[in-house]
Amino acid sequence: MKRNYDYIIIGGGIIGLSVAYNLSKKGANNILLLEKDFVGEGSTGKCAGGIRLQFSTDINIRFSILSRKIFDNFKEEFGVDPEFKKVGYLFLATEESELSIFEKNIALQRKFGIDVELLTQKEIKKRWPYLKTDDIKGGTFCAQDGYAGPHEVVQGYMRAIRRLKKVDIMQKEEVIGIDFKNNLWKVKTKKEYFNSPLVINCGGPYARNIANMAKINIPISPIRRQIFVTEPFDMIKGDIPLTIDLARGWYFRREGKGILMAGPQDEKESFNTTTDFEGMTYAAENGVYRVPIFSSCRFATSWAGLYEISPDSHAIMGEVEGNKGFYIAAGFSGHGFQHAPSAG
To answer: Sorting pLDDT into bands at 50, 70 and 90, what band is 288?
Structure first.
């Protein structure tokens, strides 16, 4: 059993895979990736796959622009079609205060050359007549936004990592302890132990727990978000943008032949990944309110995943001060899938 590595990555979600791939691509060797379950089956596999340029801060826009270049050329680089559907993101404002925020966001986005529209209530009603718009003050739309397939993207990274042959991936290998001695990090799992001068914590919603094993505190909270998908629904023809009702904290998009709707995001942290009746009611009531013809929908399936929320909803990245060789790449606050290509 090989025990000594130059790099140990903890977490086999999309962030961990991106880090592993980019280290390999830049010439690093002798890399170990540890995943407590199967790669891509945690938060990555349960996300909605959104990809957007419409962010409100400089750093997130930069993340998005760099990641977009990779998603646009994903099939050529990774050999897998990511199923990137550029249907656009439509943000809806129901308060004047929200519209003012949209205007400021657009000003920033346009400085980066992003083609984003500021829309009136009448324009929204004309372009998407299925929406209830009498309470809408306006909105924003970027046609280059959309969503991709988390499973396809994970498979692309796995294929590329295997091709480079520089990463050992160990699945069902949960980390239970981390110690630092003689300038090496000793990472213990339920079955083995491994040594490395450099550890990268890509544990997503579990990143805080992983850091705590090394006596490091990082402010990341696991927050459940539920998702519900309907049976086939054909009453809306053509593309449907990923539409976000900002005030309600609710969104929807097409999922196959059905409609994917957001359930609630919990206020309290937990590792709960089950859905419940209250969540289904939330999704249904918001859906029927904003899109009245959704009253004929019936939910067919549901799932819940975990956001990794940081205090400012921005990623925590880099070496931990005072802990040589211990790095963090976590806390993406719901944006990990779309920012993974650039984060790695």
So the answer is: very high
